[in-house]
């Protein structure tokens, strides 16, 4: 059974939770224990989470997208498992990168489902011995998952949840800018191995913070150059993280 076929299970779960909530509200007051209010609130919160997940599915996972997920699920699952990643994270990333449009091309030249740049494709071709990353959607997925896995290696000291977000950020803008943001975070007394710290310091890699740069780097400029695309990178990580959270509720 394909993972996204769980809609029937989700509907049944929603019905059972709603019935449970109603049952909690119906008994006579004398029979309700003091902790029942918190139980009811907990059930209601769970129902709300399910409602949000169903709403997300209706808006973000139309039939066309679900069919694409079904088509590419085997290759996504295969390489996610190989590199120790959650396949739902990769689906969230593809949704952000291309909405599962195989012929997607960015204004910077990134190509395919996982929007791989030509120079990155050439590098991965040498490392994995696959030749058609920019033409074959399945090779594009395999290469993209591998590339995300490579980014994880740059942040070995980060805890898993932060490590994933740092790797996603590096996938989007290159690890160099993340290293520079970490250097600023370290200088400011923040934990450089957390996404909130890097998220807060990425905007400080522009020339307007030149005084701070004089304190952090001997030459007075970020080691990997000024970075003005920080909003895109922050949105990239935050959007994928939200989508991933919803996908974990659905699948």
Largest sheet, described in full?
Answer: none
- Based on DSSP secondary structure assignment, what is the total number of beta strands? 0
User: In total, how many domains does the architecture comprise?
Assistant: 3
SS-based class = mainly alpha
- N-to-C series of helices and strands: HHHHHHHHHHH
Which spans have pLDDT < 50 for at least 5 consecutive residues?
6-26
- Give the end-to-end Cα distance, rounded to a whole number of Å: 12 Å
Mean of residue pLDDT values: 88
Radius of gyration: 22 Å
Shape: globular
What is the helical fraction, as a range of percent? 55-70%
Assembly type: single chain
User: How large is the share of residues in beta strands?
Assistant: under 5%
SS summary, helix count: 11
Write a structural description.
The chain is mostly helical and 251 residues long. The chain has three domains: 58 residues; 90 residues, Lysozyme, CATH 1.10.530.10; 91 residues, no CATH class. α1 packs antiparallel against α2, α2 crosses α11 and α3 packs across α6. The longest helix is centred in the N-terminal third of the chain and has 25 residues. The radius of gyration is 22 Å and the shape is globular. It starts with 6 loop residues before the first helix and ends with a helix. About 8% of the residues have low confidence.
């Amino acid at each position: 059974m394909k993972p996204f076929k769980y809609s029937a299970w989700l509907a049944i779960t929603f019905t059972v939770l709603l019935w449970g909530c109603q049952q909690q509200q119906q008994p006579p007051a004398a029979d309700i224990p003091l902790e029942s209010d918190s139980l009811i609130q907990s059930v209601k919160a769970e129902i709300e989470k399910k409602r949000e997940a169903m709403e997300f599915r209706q808006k973000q996972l139309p039939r066309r997208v679900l069919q694409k997920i079904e088509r590419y699920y085997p290759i996504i699952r295969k390489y996610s498992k190989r590199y120790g990643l959650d396949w739902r994270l990769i689906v969230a990333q593809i949704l952000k990168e291309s909405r599962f449009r195989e012929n997607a091309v960015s204004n910077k030249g990134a190509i395919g489902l996982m929007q791989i740049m030509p120079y990155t494709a050439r590098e991965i071709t040498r490392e994995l011995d696959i030749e058609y990353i920019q033409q074959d959607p399945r090779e594009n997925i395999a290469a993209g998952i591998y590339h995300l896995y490579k980014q994880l290696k740059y942040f070995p000291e980060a805890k898993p949840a932060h490590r994933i977000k740092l790797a996603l950020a590096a996938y989007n803008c290159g690890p160099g800018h993340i290293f520079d943001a970490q250097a600023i975070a370290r200088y400011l007394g923040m934990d450089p191995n957390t996404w909130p710290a890097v998220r807060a310091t990425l905007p400080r890699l522009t020339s307007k913070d030149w005084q701070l740069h004089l304190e952090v780097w001997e030459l007075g400029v970020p080691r990997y150059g000024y970075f003005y695309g920080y909003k895109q990178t922050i949105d990239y990580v935050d959007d994928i993280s939200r989508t991933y959270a919803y996908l974990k509720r659905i699948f």
